Amino acid sequence: MSLNAFPSRRPRRLRLNEARRRLVRETALTPGDLIAPLFVKEGIDDAQPVASMPGVMQHTLDSLLAEAKDLRSAGVSAVMLFGVPASKDAEGTEAWNARGILPTAVRALREAHGDDLVVLTDTCLDEYTDHGHCGPLRPDGTVDNDAAVTSYARAAVMQAEAGADLVAPSGMMDGQVAAIRAALDDAGHAERVGIMAYCTKYASAFYGPFRDAAECAPQFGDRSGYQMDPANADEGVREALTDVAEGADVLLVKPAVPYLDVVRRVKDATAMPLAAYHVSGEYAMVHAAAERGWIDGDRVMAETLIGIRRAGADLVLTYAAGWMARRLA
Ligand code: PBG
């Protein structure tokens, strides 16, 4: 006699051993789904570890090339580059200096890897402005949207000229994707250079460690006037649809874990290639808890990254990309 009111329903049959579990596994995470964010800093002789992000460095050009080579040999498809310039000003003019650290790094990666590594570039100003906001300020201290967008377009063209595959505007200014697309097209990059749009980016406390790594903490105020309210999901879908209409090739939701509902909704609403960014604070928390012996950090990291894929992200930006890729091999 069966203990089960529905004798034919015994879900555990498919969990009986690893071979059966493998057979019915729904989601796969492969090294090719991973994008590694990398920091390259101007004017340093040795790579500098980022204290709050174990395993993450501010790279020199040489150490960046070595890291990219390791990532590629582990099967990682793509890197997202953040430049940390030696000098900053109110406008963030270094962001469109063709001899600046970011385009120099792009050229070096392109030379080392040809077309075998997808190189994405952060297109924003906060690493380049002395006040740390994502665009130039008006006298009242708010960010001037249209002036920021004009600067993003200049920076994007310069990044494209250096050899970027996809530029990635992360500033959450209105109209940024349309302006960058038009500027890229005018400059002759219509066919080759795409846009990964941070369509749905929240004003999040999880970016803390990144701001150490990229040296871009706002010197006053916060980013709630341009990044999204964590309470909003419909708005996140609207932002995504707007970026699709403006010409985005790939969408990105950020942070990842607190916003997995948004990841799923954006995927369902757009059917676009979708990335989710497991951000610095999310990464740091796993390491911090593991260091205290409170969780098994390796298993938590792997579970987190497959969860992001399962929620609907095709691509995962993670500081654990190299580690994860080697674990999957
Ligand atoms: C802004 C930018 C930020 C991150 C990526 N791009 C910081 C911010 O918006 O304050 C954060 C990424 C992370 O925390 O890992 N250009």
Q: Can you walk me through this structure?
A:
- The chain is of the alpha/beta class.
- The chain has a single domain, classed as TIM Barrel, CATH 3.20.20.70.
- Helices cover 38% and strands 16% of the residues.
- Strands 1-4-5-6-7-8-9-10 form an eight-stranded parallel β-barrel, surrounded by nine helices.
- Helix 2 crosses helix 3 (101-113), helix 3 runs parallel beside helix 4 and helix 7 (234-246) packs across helix 8.
- It is globular, with a radius of gyration of 21 Å.
- The site of ligand PBG has 10 residues, from helix 6.
- Residues 122, 124, 126, 170, 207, 210-211, 223, 279-280 line the site of ligand PBG.
Instruction: Spell out which ligands are present.
Output: ligand PBG
- Could you estimate the helical fraction of the residues in percent? 25-40%
Classify the fold: give the CATH topology.
TIM Barrel
**Poorly predicted residue ranges:** none
What fraction of residues sit in β-strands? 15-25%
Rg, alpha carbons: 21 Å
- According to CATH, the homologous superfamily is Aldolase class I
CATH architecture: Alpha-Beta Barrel
Order of helical and strand elements: HEEEHEHEHEHEHHEHEHHEH
Q: Give the count of helical stretches.
A: 11
Oligomeric state, counting identical vs distinct chains: single chain
Give the total of beta strands: 10
Category by helix and strand content: alpha/beta
Which outline best applies? globular
Q: The biggest beta sheet, please?
A: 8 strands, parallel, barrel
> How many domains?
1
Distance between the termini: 45 Å
